[in-house]
Design a protein that fits this description.
Length: 302
């Protein structure tokens, strides 16, 4: 049995190699897009003989490749979606979708995966703005209950709670879409710690190779979606709405969130959140999508 594989999975077949796939979805003409439209999506998939299936949602401007290394070794069936507009390159024809449109796209994608694998329990994992998108997806399902898919469990990695946790998003939301380089440089020079500097440089390198318009739209929409620093109730309300729809919900925060926990802890009582668990780690933001942390958390979800 490979090292790191939990005892309960020792008889489970290891996943096939990660494959790059695509699907074309037709969205609801009465939905968020407001007109019939076909959306082409790309995703990574590692098929495995597991009872559950995990769908991964990446952070702002990133893509499915952030989860490739994990999926190469994980014993469970995994699918990592790249959101529309973030596949790479500087194609001027790339359309920047709104936050509501992204929620509809993800909802339709989950339905397509559920229909392809009807016997599997679906779990959602979101990192950073991918975690925020899961919270927005829960709102979308409350607004349009006929589009809802059953979700067995959810893992949110560093979701935002208000503008105080959105430094990077705030900078990119207000950057000049024709020349965002000065703001990207400002982000890099604002970092002091060596490890954080390496992560930020890597992140900026990834998004600099892509069309900036969808990234700016994504950042701007989420900035508008959250409230100013000090306002925690909107996060609590949105998390409660998610818990009402999901089986078990787990939130894992990086060390930077420690200062917010005193305020949030009083809201996370067992009666309001009976299937919720939260943890503040000693890890940095981008370390939360490292293989060690993700493998540990995925094992807890199974």
């Amino acid at each position: 049995m490979p090292a790191g594989v939990p005892q309960e999975h020792e008889n489970m077949e290891l996943p096939m190699s990660v494959e790059e796939k695509s699907v074309q979805l037709k969205l609801d003409p009465e939905g968020a897009l407001g007109a019939p439209e076909l959306i082409d999506l790309t995703y990574l998939e590692s098929v495995a003989d597991s009872s559950g299936l995990v769908i991964y949602l990446h952070g702002m401007g990133l893509d499915a490749d952030d989860f490739r290394a994990l999926m190469d070794h994980d014993v469970a069936h995994g699918i990592a979606l790249t959101l529309p507009g973030f596949t790479g390159g500087h194609d001027a024809n790339v359309k920047a979708l709104s936050l509501s449109q992204h929620a509809e796209v993800v909802s339709r994608f989950v339905i397509a995966i559920r229909d392809e694998y009807p016997g599997k329990d679906i779990s959602l994992v979101g990192f950073s703005l991918g975690a925020d998108l899961i919270l927005r997806l829960a709102e979308f399902w409350h607004e349009q209950p006929t589009t809802r898919s059953n979700v067995d469990s959810v893992l949110l990695l560093d979701p935002n709670i208000n503008h105080s946790t959105m430094h990077l998003s705030g900078v990119l939301a207000h950057a000049d879409e024709r020349n965002p380089i000065p703001e990207m440089k400002r982000v890099i020079t604002s970092v002091d710690a060596k490890d954080d500097f390496a992560h930020i440089c890597s992140y900026i390198g990834k998004i600099a190779s892509k069309n900036f318009l969808p990234i700016k739209q994504h950042a701007r929409d989420f900035w508008s979606w959250w409230r100013p620093a000090g306002d925690y109730m909107l996060f609590v309300t949105r998390l409660l709405a998610l818990c009402e729809l999901a089986g078990n919900t787990r939130v894992v925060f990086s060390s930077a969130y420690e200062a917010h926990m005193t305020t949030l802890a009083g809201e996370f009582d067992c009666e309001r959140f009976p299937r919720l668990s939260c943890e503040v780690t000693d890890l940095g933001h981008f370390d939360l999508i490292g293989e060690d942390l993700l493998s540990r958390e995925l094992t807890k979800m199974r």
